[in-house]
Amino acid sequence: MNDNRKEIIRLLRQSEGNPVSGQDIGEKLGISRAMVWKYVRNLRKEGYDIRSSPKTGYILDAYPDRIDPDELKAILKTSLIGTDVRYYSDLESTNNTAREIATRSPEGTVVIAETQRKGRGRMGTEWQSIPGGIWLSLILKPSVPLDNVSKITLVAGIAVTNTLRNAGIDARIKWPNDVLVRGRKICGILTEVSAEVEKVDYVILGIGINANVKLVDFREDIRLNSTSISNEIGKVINRTAFIASLLYELEQQYIMFKTRKFTDIIDEWINLSDTIGKEVKIKTPNKLIEGKAVGITENGAIVVLDRNNERQEIIAGNCRYRN
Amino acid sequence: MNDNRKEIIRLLRQSEGNPVSGQDIGEKLGISRAMVWKYVRNLRKEGYDIRSSPKTGYILDAYPDRIDPDELKAILKTSLIGTDVRYYSDLESTNNTAREIATRSPEGTVVIAETQRKGRGRMGTEWQSIPGGIWLSLILKPSVPLDNVSKITLVAGIAVTNTLRNAGIDARIKWPNDVLVRGRKICGILTEVSAEVEKVDYVILGIGINANVKLVDFREDIRLNSTSISNEIGKVINRTAFIASLLYELEQQYIMFKTRKFTDIIDEWINLSDTIGKEVKIKTPNKLIEGKAVGITENGAIVVLDRNNERQEIIAGNCRYRN
Asked: Secretion signal: which residues (chains A, B) (predicted)?
């Protein structure tokens, strides 16, 4: 049943706007024209805009913007990241689901959801997950000590930024873990870990990208500081293809994380950084630090030269730029 | 029902070997002598050695060596650690249970099991949990960044060692996380964490102490390198009282972890250390480092001066002493 549905979509998309007759489809699938018609009616309900003329056949004018996990598996060029793709129409949060399945899932498993009901940002904040975005979580199981985890986060920031840059978007990383375009947030990364001190059990890399999100759909307080890929390049992207590129880039960076000197990774991060060199104001639970961001440490801490020209390393906090 | 059982035990223990008549017990509890006799028979089945003489009454000669969670709650002098004590006769692993309940449990919750079927040591090794030991896991929820977790482990090592020393045992810490007496293991600590990079969700401190364990019960390969409290001091200890002291010491150290300069904690750790100053051989997944252990870093890494007098920091590995 489901295969017929997919095959009909494939035939209609393949003909690129030219009509395909119900007879042809029926013959290829070994089903009756009436049955083809039944499928078409169901597809229309799903949001597929299919014209039909009794003389020429069916024409696919538009299809819903959905991630296609089968297509993704077909075009994926990785050997580890994406070995197992779990696609859901709707989840509470991809990170929550990834955590639930992590222990019994192979490394490289990716959880993707079309929509999230309770998307989470860093430190318990809400993440507005509007339809059209890319909401995914990646399960990694590096056998490294706990203190390597922040490196994985840095490396993930590099991977997302590179993928966006390859798509023609001038993305930069804002410390600790956001990706910005023209100063507006296009992506957030939430890294969660389960570990012993000496050995990581698993890392969940939650990546949220405002891909085909319309800015009007954002809540007002978020809208001003946000942007999306479609907003930046002026057209809707193929999210399935974008995810394939992203997972490929993540795999490249993950391999490098395991083999490369960490100073090289830091150099690349600084190169892509939006924060280094800027005057910043960082709020931690205990204090407020103002000064110039001059670098990051191996632990992912930002290094700030404060007013007294003293070097401060801050591992976690809310960073704002001073103007 | 259960209260009567406890009250009978209390009355018998209170009389310290002197007989207590069934009539007296019955009157105090408002139950018949026949009912008292029924309770006594059940207690005998549980391992309570209760003599009875028709003329004088019941005498408690011996009671099973079990941890008493009610007694523990009564004598506990802490305000955070042990707020909630979950006592089980048998668990797969106290760390596993603690992880399962961590999110919905208050900070300070302690999971205690009389026996563990699948006790775990560091890095997936087996931990032989013989009856008579102390197997417990503590749930902590410090709101600190991830890189603070190894400090909590160091602090836990200090707490266990201090508690053993207060009990008259010359305990010392072997890097990274064992406690030794005369070179033999008496305690192991397994720290597990669930966290974001910027904020710890919860830490599980699994502490296994060979308290009243008989050395003959150890598997041969473990026996030679192990000892127990009862073996060291020549008598069985009251495990309930020992746990109360341990939780008190853990609370003191946990408060200090939050307020004290970390260099002070390192100094105390080094003071109690069995490893610093020794010639060591440390095996990591990538290499073997031989040299003299000279210190530890803020991340809990051991500092070794190798043959070329070069400083090596090792965060995780298997440490053996060279002789």
From this structure: none
